[in-house]
Specification:
With 170 residues, the chain is of the alpha+beta class. It has a single domain, classed as Pnp Oxidase, Chain A. Helices cover 25% and strands 39% of the residues. It contains 4 helices and 9 strands; from the N terminus they run βαββββαββαβαβ. Strands 1, 2, 3, 4, 5, 6, 7, 8 and 9 form a 9-stranded mixed sheet that branches. About 7% of the residues have low confidence.
Length: 170
């Protein structure tokens, strides 16, 4: 994932955690209110804190987003013991220049017509709020943190947990 410089340390930390996890589970609401999640590869977190994904314009998720643009993204990196939850607003972007800039051959199987595929669009998610849990990567550090938390009831050694406000909407 391409991660551009962020405006705050909290957003920088969020970009770092998302960059390691890379794959998001995007959750949208179906017309009957049921929630549906599916995986998407994160292409970029731009300097405004927006997350970018490729998508098919004709996919059901795009119809769901057109009806209700509030979405959720979940990231998990179990090897690092890092977890991220993002709430935001999704929108379709048809900017062919930006599509070219973010294109990679790894996308080709889903869009065999390549950059000229009229169904190929970008999905931009403007982060409203996010929450992350970042535990120490070392098993020994996690064990120490757990022992300290049991002995002192101080859970700070178990890792970082923070709520982050996204940049102000445009």
């Amino acid at each position: 994932m391409d991660s551009q410089a962020q405006k705050t340390p909290a957003m920088e930390k969020l970009a770092q955690l998302i960059g390691h996890a890379r794959i998001a589970m995007l959750t949208t609401a179906e017309p009957d209110g049921a929630l549906r999640s599916r995986p998407l590869a994160t292409l970029q977190m731009d300097s405004e804190g927006a997350l970018w994904f490729f998508s098919s314009l004709s996919s059901p998720k795009m119809q769901e987003i057109a009806r209700h643009s509030q979405i959720s993204l979940s990231y998990s990196d179990p090897d690092r013991h890092d977890y991220v939850s993002v709430s935001g607003t999704a929108e379709v972007v048809r900017d062919r220049e930006r599509i070219r800039a973010l294109w990679t051959e790894w996308v080709q199987p889903w869009f065999p017509r390549g950059l000229e595929d009229p169904d190929l669009v970008l999905l931009r998610v403007r982060v409203s709020e996010a929450e992350y849990w970042d535990a120490p990567a070392s098993g020994m550090q996690r064990l120490y943190g757990l022992a300290k938390a049991i002995a002192t009831r101080d859970t700070r050694a178990l890792g970082e947990h923070e709520k982050v406000r996204g940049p102000a909407p445009h």
